[in-house]
Backbone:
């Protein structure tokens, strides 16, 4: 099992998108899979917690973090998992589309080898990039 840890920036962004009606189907809708009544948000978080692969529908792909964002994740890893800061060589971030390959509802996160997943951003392409 992995631990899902939202960053402060993510918490602010999530609060904003939860109020936006365009995000209703992400938090309250249903995933497009048979016999699964979870929302896309619940599905993805459950996959993170249970270390399960995320369906191709959500179109995960790597993104590049700024030096500042990488430093923040390294600092958090040091605090959350007692990982030596200098021992962290690589931080890989991923972008996930809640509404399929061409969707515009994104989740940015970092999956670590220490069973900690950092949620670092949520929003549309124009809001995040």
Residues:
């Amino acid at each position: 099992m992995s631990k899902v840890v939202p960053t402060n920036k993510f918490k602010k962004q999530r609060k904003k998108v939860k109020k936006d009606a365009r995000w209703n189907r992400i938090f309250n809708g249903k995933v497009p899979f048979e016999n699964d009544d979870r929302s896309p948000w619940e599905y993805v978080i459950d996959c993170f917690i249970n270390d399960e692969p995320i369906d191709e529908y959500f179109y995960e792909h790597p993104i590049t973090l700024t030096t500042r964002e990488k430093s923040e994740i390294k600092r958090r890893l040091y605090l959350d998992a007692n990982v030596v800061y200098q021992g962290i060589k690589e931080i890989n971030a991923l972008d996930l589309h809640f509404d399929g390959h061409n969707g515009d509802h994104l989740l940015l996160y970092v999956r670590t080898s220490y069973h900690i997943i950092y949620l670092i951003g949520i929003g549309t392409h124009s809001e995040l990039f």
